[in-house]
Amino acid sequence: MFLTNEKKLANKGMTRCKKCGKEYQLGTRNFCSQLCYEADIQNRIIEASMEDPSHTKRISKE
User: Fold this and answer.
1) Is 47 helix (H, G, I), strand (E, B) or coil?
2) What is the DSSP-derived secondary structure letter of residue 33?
3) Is 29 left (phi over 0), alpha (psi -120 to 50) or beta?
4) What is the pLDDT of residues 30-55, one digit of tens each?
5) Higher-confidence residue: 9 or 26?
6) Which long-range contacts (CB under 8 A, 24 or more apart) does 24-30 make?
7) CB 22 within 8 A of CB 32
8) In angstroms, rounded to a whole number, what is the distance separating the alpha carbons of residues 18 and 36?
């Protein structure tokens, strides 16, 4: 069902936001808004810093 919805969106010239799933025509790098884009970047930074053992050791020592 998801593929048929994507085909319908493509026929309308619309795409789906990677973050919130909202349909849009113009956006920022596969996101519907600058807000969703910035939230995705922030989540990536948090995930990357949690996986880095040197970063987590520095936080736990302080």
Assistant:
1) helix
2) S
3) left
4) 888 899 999 999 999 888 877 666 65
5) 26
6) none
7) yes
8) 8
Tokens 């113009």 correspond to: 26
Query: What distance in Å separates the CA atoms of residue 4 and residue 58, rounded to the nearest whole number?
Result: 48
How long, in residues, is the chain?
A: 62
Tell me the two tokens of residue 62: 């302080």
Return the amino acid letter for 17.
Answer: C
Q: Which two tokens stand for residue 40?
A: 């995705």
CA distances from 20 to 11, 16, 31, 49, 52 (A): 21, 8, 8, 23, 27
Q: How far apart are CA 23 and CA 12, in angstroms?
A: 10
pTM of the model: 0.58
